[in-house]
Specification:
The complex is a heterodimer of chains A (564) and B (117).
Chain A: E1 6-10, H1 14-26, E2 30-34, H2 37-47, E3 51-55, H3 63-74, E4 81-84, H4 90-98, E5 103-105, H5 111-159, E6 170-173, H6 178-181, E7 183-189, E8 195-202, H7 207-226, H8 230-244, E9 251-259, E10 264-270, E11 275-278, E12 284-287, E13 307-310, E14 316-320, H9 322-326, H10 336-345, H11 353-365, E15 376-380, E16 403-411, H12 413-418, H13 422-430, H14 433-436, H15 439-458, H16 469-484, E17 490-498, E18 502-511, H17 534-540, E19 543-547, E20 552-560
Parallel strand pairs in A: 1-2, 1-3, 3-4, 4-5
Antiparallel strand pairs in A: 6-15, 7-8, 8-9, 9-10, 10-13, 11-12, 11-14, 14-15, 16-17, 17-18, 18-20, 19-20
Chain B: H1 3-6, H2 9-18, H3 24-47, H4 50-67, H5 70-85, H6 88-108
Helix pairs in contact in B: 3-4, 3-6, 4-5, 5-6
The chains are: A alpha+beta (564), B mainly alpha (117).
């Protein structure tokens, strides 16, 4: 506001009006004068004053009614009103306050007193306007934030649907906005009909936690569905989170696999409070954290080794993030591990740990306390029938000799130059449920066989050149040159046999190159195999055979069902 | 009756400061206004119109107080209160007091402290 502003003086008494207008003008305000109530409302509309000095008793419309209409017209803006009335008239004072009067001025008028009142009300006006502006700004920001959170939550819900959490043997509690306090709870069925549950607690709140939760959910659901083992899922999740999260941000996590057919529990705990496995007799086994959280260690140092425990129907698993441990009462005392452990240890048979813990936490934080940050899961082991598992497909268990098939895939020069056939082959192979579980091994073996056939068999490159940096560059230049003038083919032949006992996959890769004299070095000179990746293949496969003139390698992969 | 009871010199000094020493227009307005109100009061008292008596007495009270005519303001207050209570004998007496005091004030307006001696 520039300049002191505009003031309306409304009084039916000419002398009083003259005196008052003179005082207000001396303070630098623009003044409009009104001679009665109706005139006051008219001048208020025309002159748009920021303050109004109002005589209470005027013929026609009195000051109280004028005040009410002025306040109504002002809306959210503050238009202070000073009533011109003597402080001895108690009834008039009460009515003036009720009508919206902000202050009073009694006769005879005094310059100093009025100046002080005008200044005070002007400051109040400025403060009010600032507050309104800030309030509007805050509510705008808030609306924006809520909108963004809703959008983020919608995206997250698409990625991390909770479908498998709704099974009758699972009870869980998680805030609808858990994603923003860093908690993640995911459940999925593996191809072997095991139930995988991942409970995660990201460091920090808000966007960082939400951002990390997305890839974690995607990896968990994607890999569980494809038949990867818990350890493989954890390794991939760790690698991904390490790559995308800022330094110092990580995810405390517990992955449990409930194997209904085997009546086993497999778990891995990295940094979460210990889970509790409540035995049917009431004994409790703690599932301690033996690992660092996801997103801390490099891939080489990451330890995905899981632990397996027997778990029979009726036995229960209770998991939580540190929201429960940290829940504070009115004095700031946290709920603590010990309370959780006491409740779990003191359960009478058939009593729900879930309800007992929830109730105790509620009592602890007191009425009206928020339990937004609490994530709690109780899972009961059930029989395969109660888990409503579909019966296993007959083909792998019926004693009719199982399944066998053969697949040949040959790449000509143009395919070899332009494309990488491995993803396609990998995708085809993992379509078979029994092979899906071994996707990682298959991937490595295929990669070794293919690069062996292409780079050594067809292109005749010597990978020992790669041992120096300049040689490395030279190697890839030579590879590009050789590819350009490439002739010939690489052929894959897969034979698969699945019976009651095992899955057996043979992969033979033949190239049209000259081969090499593998017999001459079969006596044990491993250097002959140097750079051909054969050593790695031997460690992964039950058999590795060189055939023909050295231009064909056949490997045999075997997995017994019991090993699954 | 002493001048100091009739006219509040401090209020007049304040008034001079507010009006930049020039009281003429204000005093003239007061005189015209006060005569009009006195006429209106007489008519209203005769007619028993208590509301008009109350409003006119209230208005004359305020203006007189602002001008420093303390005793007149006080008589106006008495009249205003009488109109509120509704006793007509009191009303006549109070109106008489106002009329007599107004005549004194009108004379005083021509003298110090309003005018330079």
């Amino acid at each position: 506001m520039s300049g002191p502003g505009r003031v309306l003086v409304a009084d039916d008494n000419r002398v009083d009006r003259m005196v008052l207008a003179a005082i207000v003008r001396r303070e630098g305000y623009d003044v409009a004068e009104a001679v009665d109530g109706h005139d006051a409302l008219r001048k208020f509309r025309e002159f748009a004053p920021q303050m109004v000095l109002l005589d209470a008793l005027m013929p026609g419309l009195d000051g109280f009614e004028v005040a009410r209409q002025v306040k109504a017209a002002a809306g959210e803006e503050l238009i202070p009103i000073i009533f011109l009335t003597s402080l001895t008239e108690a009834d008039a004072l009460a009515r003036a306050v009720e009508a919206g009067g902000d202050d009073f001025l009694s006769k005879p008028y005094n310059q100093i007193v009025l100046k002080a009142k005008l200044n005070a009300l002007q400051r109040m006006r400025t403060m009010h306007a600032t507050m309104q502006r800030q309030r509007d700004e805050i509510s705008r920001h808030h609306a924006h934030l809520v909108q963004e959170q809703e959008a983020a939550k919608a995206v997250f819900d698409n990625v991390a649907h909770t479908g498998h959490l709704d099974a009758p043997f699972i009870r869980y509690l998680i805030s609808p906005l858990a994603i923003f306090n860093g908690d993640v709870l995911l459940a999925a069925r593996s191809p072997a009909d095991d139930l995988f549950v991942l409970l995660g607690d990201f460091t920090g709140h808000g966007l960082t936690a939400a951002v990390g939760a997305m890839p974690l959910a995607e990896i968990f659901y994607g890999m569980t569905e494809k038949g990867f083992a818990p350890g493989e899922i954890l390794r991939e999740a760790n690698r991904k989170l390490l790559a995308i999260m800022p330094k110092g941000y990580f995810c405390c996590a517990m992955l449990v696999a409930l194997k209904f057919r085997k009546q086993e529990l497999e778990f891995w705990n990295g940094g979460l409070p210990h889970g509790s496995l409540i035995r049917n007799g009431g004994a409790v086994t703690q599932l301690e954290s033996r690992h660092l959280p996801l997103g801390v260690l490099s891939d080489e140092r990451f330890d995905p080794v899981t632990h397996v425990l027997p778990m029979t129907p009726g036995e229960r698993l209770v998991l939580s993030t540190d929201g429960i441990v940290d829940a504070r009462d009115a004095f700031g005392t946290p709920f603590g591990h010990e309370r959780v452990d006491r409740i779990v240890a003191g359960l009478s048979p058939g009593m729900s740990a879930f309800e007992a813990i929830q109730r105790a936490v509620q009592n602890h934080i007191g009425g009206g306390g928020r339990d937004d940050d609490i994530t709690l899961v109780e899972i009961t082991m059930v029989t395969p029938v109660a888990a409503q598992l579909p019966p296993l497909p007959a083909r792998t268990r019926a004693g009719d000799g199982g399944e066998d098939w053969c697949l040949t895939y040959e790449l000509g020069p143009s395919s070899l130059r332009t494309g990488n056939p491995l993803p396609l082959l990998q995708q085809v192979l993992v379509e078979f449920p029994d092979l899906r579980r071994h996707a990682g091994t298959i991937h490595t073996v295929l990669g070794e066989l293919y690069s062996n056939a292409l780079e050594h068999g067809l292109l005749g490159l010597d990978s020992s050149a790669k041992s120096s940096p300049s040689g490395f560059t030279e190697y890839y230049r030579a590879r590009a040159r050789a590819l350009d003038s490439l002739q010939g083919f690489v052929r894959f032949r897969f034979r698969c046999r699945i019976d009651e006992a095992e899955v057996c996959l043979s992969i033979a890769v033949t190239d049209s190159g000259p081969g090499f004299d593998y017999r001459a070095v079969a006596g044990g000179d491993e250097r002959a195999y140097h750079g051909r990746g054969l050593k790695l293949l031997r460690s992964l496969c039950s058999e590795v055979r060189l055939q023909g003139r050295g231009n064909q390698v056949e490997v045999m992969l075997r997995w017994s069902h019991a090993h699954v | 009756m002493r001048m100091s009871d009739r006219i509040d010199a401090a209020v007049v000094a304040e008034l001079k400061s507010i009006m930049d020493g020039d009281l003429d227009a204000l005093l003239e307005a007061y005189r015209d206004d006060a005569r009009d109100r006195l006429d209106a009061l007489r008519t209203a008292v005769r007619a028993g119109d208590l509301t008009t008596v109350r409003l006119q007495a209230h208005s004359l009270k305020g203006a007189s107080a602002n001008l420093g005519a303390a005793r007149l303001a006080s008589h106006c207050a008495t009249l205003e209160a009488a109109a509120l209570q509704g006793g007509s004998a009191c009303l006549e007496r109070a109106l008489q007091a106002v009329a007599m005091e107004l005549a004194e004030v009108e004379r005083a307006l021509l003298l110090p402290p309003y005018r330079a001696g």
